[in-house]
Amino acid sequence: xxxxxxxxxxxxxxxxxxxxxxxxxGETFTTITGRELLAQVQRGRSYIRKxxxxxxxxCALLGANSIQWVAVDLALMAEGIIVVPLYSxxxxxxxxxxxxxCSPCFLIVGDADLGATIEREWPERPHRVxxxxxxxxxxxxEPITEAPNARTDGDLVTIIYTSGTxxxxxxVCLNVxxxxxxxxxxxxxxxHLMGSSSESDKVFHYLPFNFAGSWILLLSCxxxxxxxxxxxxxxxxxxxIRLSAPNYFLNVPTLLERVRRGVLDSISKRAAPIxxxxxxxxxxxxxxxxxxxxxxxxxxxxLGRRLIFAKxxxxxxxxxxxxxxxxxxxxxxxxxxFMMLGIPVLQAYGLTESTAICTMDNxxxxxxxxxxxxxxxxxxxxxxxxxxxxxxxxNIFPGYWNRPEETAKVLRDGWFHTGDQGxxxxxGNWRIIGRIKNLIILNSGHNVPPEPIExxxxxxxxxxxQVVVVGNGRGYLCALITGDVTPAAAQGAIDAVNADxxxxxQIRKFTILASPFTAQDGLLTAMGKLRRDxxxxxxxxxxxxxxxxxxx
Length: 552
What we know:
Blueprint: H1 4-15, E1 19-25, E2 28-33, H2 34-50, E3 58-62, H3 67-78, E4 82-86, H4 92-102, E5 106-109, H5 112-121, E6 127-130, H6 131-136, E7 156-161, E8 171-175, H7 176-194, E9 201-205, H8 212-222, E10 226-230, H9 237-244, E11 248-251, H10 253-268, H11 272-289, H12 295-314, E12 323-325, H13 332-340, E13 345-349, E14 359-360, E15 374-375, E16 380-383, E17 388-392, E18 399-400, H14 404-410, E19 411-412, E20 415-424, E21 430-435, E22 440-441, E23 447-448, H15 451-460, E24 464-470, E25 477-483, H16 487-498, E26 507-513, H17 532-538, H18 540-546
Parallel strand pairs: 1-10, 3-4, 3-5, 5-6, 9-10, 9-11, 11-12, 12-13, 25-26
Antiparallel strand pairs: 1-2, 7-8, 8-18, 13-14, 14-15, 16-17, 17-20, 19-20, 20-21, 22-23, 24-25
């Protein structure tokens, strides 16, 4: 059986003059065919050979998503080089730390200023070269379709650094076997989604390629008959999506929740008849979902679908079959909201160490909101001590780069310990409860996963950007809430959430922080996840104030 890289090269050969990649710039597209992409890859391979890189060498790849990034990545992998993809918006000091950890021979950058920033931070950095220079080299006598170097399943292809929600980022090593198996699994799910369609998949993409899930989607598209459109301007994301008219694309919960709030805010500013119709249609959709829809209700729901829901869906272009969401659990209400609009949201769960994916919703069976689908083909998942999810299979990484002790902590007796708490229902669908390391242990001995409480409060507080529950080692829980939020709104939401919780899980006090957390200030990861230890340190005074004086 061909490995993933051989399959991609074969697919690009079959594509020939068919467009496989597009960059969207304003209202226009820059395109490249399968033949043209292979020619760029061959030029990149000639450059790599010229400078004497050999299989097993490491090369850092730093830049925004682009056709050039894809060509360089394929060229490096085809030559047996281990690619270290880095996030172009990450702090220079953190990027330097990652490169010091894995000692790459080359740093290939897409932007000269970004390369210069790294050089100022780390003067001893490896030899730096621009992507365009790598791809400008004239090929020797090799044919455009020269096959990739022979690889075994155990050969490393990439080192992807974790986002570092706490502690120092670690380099996750992924090998040929990991990626080959994963592309078989994603291909199976995309086949289910596209059904009997004879047209190429139309896919839009905005998440950086240095993230495992984003990279796996890229490789999945290259191995299929797809047209992948790359975003180049996040400030124009809505317009780019509409112009691209995708069948599906990968999302993080933050974006989908932002879309939901935007739609609701827009409706609230419309004329009274539109507001009333939306409210009626929403209520009747809920009745339909619970099997209580009457004839008159059905009429109003049909009207709402035609005049409002369909208009919102049109913003995604005319081809949308589903949205795919990963990186963190999606709020149940948000998933239902998109279902109401006629847009299925397929959830996926996984970690970089599991080659990005452990579970995926199957579009051929009913989706359960709040769950992240069934285990992908060929892997085993179970719940171990402390409700921790453990996984084994060909998708599990061989270890962290140069960190045998850290590897031994998570790979035990053939199982990868994810650090996530979860449960599986009788239908085989998994639900993620939270992270074990985020578990709050009150001085009463009660264990509280903060994520479900944070999610509920965040959905109810208008203007809230983030909610962080604190209280480890304390007598009760408190919350930090960021954004343009009034105390009355925060208290109302907390009261509503507390009403359904046992006493030890109730929020007793809160503090509003006007400025949202960002990756730039070190309080979020590059994927938007909370860096809880950093938040605790930064706002230690505010947290201490909530626990001062008389106990709540």
